[in-house]
Amino acid sequence: MLQPSRDDNLIQELIEGCSNNELKCQEMLYKYFFGYALAIAIRYVGDRGEAIEVVDDSFLKIFDKFFMYDQERDFKGWLRRVVINTAIDKIRKGKGRNSKERNINESDIISLKENDADTGLYLTELHELVKQLPSLHRVVFNMYEVEGFSHKEIGEKLKIPESSSRTYLTRAKKELRKLYKRYFQ
């Protein structure tokens, strides 16, 4: 039988403290999962500053509704769903819209090329390209390709037709191919 790790015990203690509204436990839980939540948020909003806002808003929601958390379930999964929904809400409200294509400057290209090898596109390079997509294309791409949502689920969450989700994904992939050719070939 697997024994719980030290981290598992710490997380359980923090969760118990958060369920009792202990501020120190909330602070420690926030710090422990900040990087994880930020990585998710950046995939959706693209900008680090906006992603930090999404993370902060997500944790505020979590601490406000901690009584809804089922401690039998994985906390990371709940946090992931809250961060994704918060990012989508921010984009939907127009606060996170950045539909202009961001131009990659020369230093970005140099930093991306540093990892270039015969093995193909690295995850960090793909992330840089995905950040270039218009916000709705980026969200649909991340939800479908990274998070594993179906087009039906994406349509329901974004309040768009299922067929639009498919269209946005197709356009995102087409744009990623163009960006790849522009910067890596």
Structure description:
The protein is mainly alpha-helical. The protein has two domains: 6-92, RNA polymerase sigma factor, region 2, helix turn helix motif (Rna Polymerase Sigma Factor, Chain: A, Orthogonal Bundle); 106-184, Orthogonal Bundle (Arc Repressor Mutant, subunit A). 71% of the residues lie in helices and 0% in strands. The chain has nine helices and no strands. Helix 1 (6-19) packs across helix 2 (23-45), helix 2 crosses helix 3 and helix 2 crosses helix 4 (75-92). Mean pLDDT is 81; it is low at 95-119.
- What are the segments in which pLDDT stays under 50 over at least 5 consecutive residues? 95-119
End-to-end separation:
51 Å
The Cα radius of gyration reads 18 Å
Order of helices and strands: HHHHHHHHH
Shape: elongated
Oligomer class: single chain
What is the annotated CATH architecture of the largest domain? Orthogonal Bundle
- Separate helix tally: 9
Largest sheet: number of strands, sense, barrel closure: none
Helix content: over 70%
Sum up the structure in keywords.
0% strand; mainly alpha; single chain; Rna Polymerase Sigma Factor, Chain: A; elongated; Arc Repressor Mutant, subunit A; 2 domains; 185 residues
